[in-house]
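Figure 2 data, in text form.
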Amino acid sequence: MTVTEATARLTPTEAATPPTVDLPEIADPSRVAPKDARQLSRLFFDRLAALEEGTPEYQYARNTLIEMNMTLVRFAAARFRSRGHDEMEDVVQVGMVGLIKAIDRFEITREVEFTSFAVPYIVGEMKRFFRDTSWAVHVPRRLQEARIHLARATEELRSRLGRTPTVKELSQLMCLSEEEVNEARVAANGYTSSSLDAAIGSSDDDEGVLADFIGSDDNALELVEDFNALAPMIAGLDGRERRIIHMRFVDECTQAQIGEHLGISQMHVSRLLNRTLGKLREGMLTTD
């Protein structure tokens, strides 16, 4: 069930108008004191178990339980108030989803207080919300958890040693291999991100954006490697072959012009050129 669907069912008018059923009429369930809510919840859960899902009686009992126990969501959300006011509304909304799941899965026969059963569901939804939305990029859950353990271990060793701990020291404390510690460190880089349009510079005169400092692939770099490999092969050609290669690809002469300059036919130039290029091509493809 989505948050929108859940909140759409939480109208005081609907909850305050019980159908013909042996349940008390509660004008505004959200205003019921927590102590009274615990007692009334047992009554409503007991009746809910006997009702058929989808009936008006079932809907009234379920909606009333949701409204009566909204204080549990606010209580659980209070521990995350350091996240900021803007985010608290979303926290409460996902907490309501956890409350609804708890109500739908609670069994009165377990003889467990509903509050003890519901709070883990509510907090779990809130933590899942932070896990899914706090990271700038998708990181596997085990690495997200490793980052938390890494931060705690780093702080503990820093206060104990008076310096930044080494990877080996962290791996010993965390009972992980050094490779796993390094993996957690790399994964931590995905927690936050910066916009490529973020301004860089302390003054207006030299202000730039991050994108200006990010390089791009230079396709010409591959040619540098080819030239370095080709140079000794060209040096190994005889004088006439080097002259033909230079005139064809540097001076950009036609085969007819090359033949006229060397005093040979165009067909002869073509054969010499193909033979020379084949020799160079074979040398480039040969691996030591």
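Caption note: The beta strands are 199-200, 208-209.
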